[in-house]
Structures are given as C-alpha cells and as structure tokens.
Write a structure and sequence with these properties.
about 45% helix, three-stranded antiparallel sheet, 8 helices, mainly alpha, elongated, about 5% strand
Length: about 200
C-alpha cells in the first residue's frame, strides 16, 4: 500500500506515541480483540483519534499475520467510531448566492469558493493549485493524499475567477503572497463564510 508523505508522517507520530503506552512491550501473539477495544476506548471522546488507532492496529496485525507471528488479526472486529461530518453538507443555491453576493468576483474569497465547488478536490489539493497547472480549459493536479494525477475540466464560472488570480504562484494566496496551509485555509474560509452569513461548510 502506497501512503502519501503526510499520512506517513502522521502514522510515524502515532506509532511513537503508542510506543509509550503500557501495552507497547506485550508480545504480539498475546493481544486479543477485547484488549484492543479497551485501548481504543480511551479515545472515545475523540472519534477521529480512535479511528486512526483502529486503522493502525489493523495494519500492524496484518503485518504480523503475513510474517507468521500470529494466525489472525484481532483488530479486524473493531468497529469504527462515528465521526462528525464536519464539512460534508451540500451547499444550497441560496447559500452559494449569498456568499457570492458578499464577496466580489476577482477576490480570493470568491476564487476559493469557485475552486471548492467546481474542482471538487480536497482543500489540501486546492491550496496547492497554481496557474502553471492550468492547461487551456483543464487543470492538471496530482492529489496529495492518493498520488493520483487528474485532468479536471474547468467550469466557465471557475475560469472567470482563475483568470483574475495572481500571475505567478498559487491561485489562493494570503495578503503577503504566500500560500495557505490546508488547515489555515480551512479556518480562513470559515471566517469568510461567517462574514458572508452563508452557513455552508467546506469538505
């Protein structure tokens, strides 16, 4: 399985923290599902953190099975925790119109919305899109998470905004000309949304 650099970094950090846990020195063949369920339950108030551990446990014990250290994977029966779908809502026409009425065409705020609506990519990919990725009426992008290369047709409304973007660098830039981080962009977009009074959420 090929993992993106950010995913590798996150897993490495998670493994380092798990090495400090009381169970870190136990023999791999001694683990049972009930033990793993208890370990994960410590993070029940943080569903995303719990699910990351479930996923990592499954990967680790898959490796143990493949190498003959044990016959089964005790993490397989673990059920994922339900996470809040922050940013999973569909935008209504009224919400889009309200946002666009507030932020004028040519603004970074308007361009951000157009990219999110019409490119259909994760914010980690949107913040890395540059003018050099624009090939006629196609945007070429390699997804950071999956490494998949895509050619995305540019909607006319998106093209209108992209043609007003800075001549060099990213389509989305801060006032100092630097690019956004994915998390920084998420927080900034929420503030733009709130200013417009459009209760839309970003995926």
């Amino acid at each position: 399985m090929s993992l993106g650099k950010n995913t590798q970094r996150n897993y490495r950090r998670l493994l380092m923290s798990m090495q400090k846990a009381p169970y870190a020195d136990d023999y791999v063949e001694h683990f049972q599902t009930i033990h793993l369920r208890r370990f994960v339950a410590e993070f029940a108030d943080r569903p995303a953190a719990a699910n990351h551990r479930i996923k990592l446990f499954r990967m680790l014990f898959d490796y143990a099975v493949d190498d003959g250290w044990r016959a089964d994977n005790p993490a397989t029966p673990l059920k994922r925790y339900k996470e809040k779908a922050d940013g999973a809502e569909t935008w209504s026409d009224d919400q889009i119109r309200q946002y666009e009425d507030y932020w004028p065409s040519g603004s970074v705020q308007r361009r951000a919305l157009a990219l999110l609506l019409y490119a259909g990519q994760r914010r980690s990919d949107v913040v890395r899109m540059e003018r050099k990725h624009l090939r006629g009426d196609i945007i070429e992008v390699t997804q950071q998470k999956t490494g998949t290369s895509l050619k995305i047709p540019v909607h006319p409304h998106l093209m209108t905004e992209l043609l007003q973007a800075p001549e060099t660098g990213n389509f989305l830039q801060r006032r100092n000309g630097l690019s956004f981080t994915a998390n920084g962009f998420y927080m900034r977009f929420k503030s733009w949304r709130d200013a417009a009074g459009a209760l839309v959420l970003m995926a």
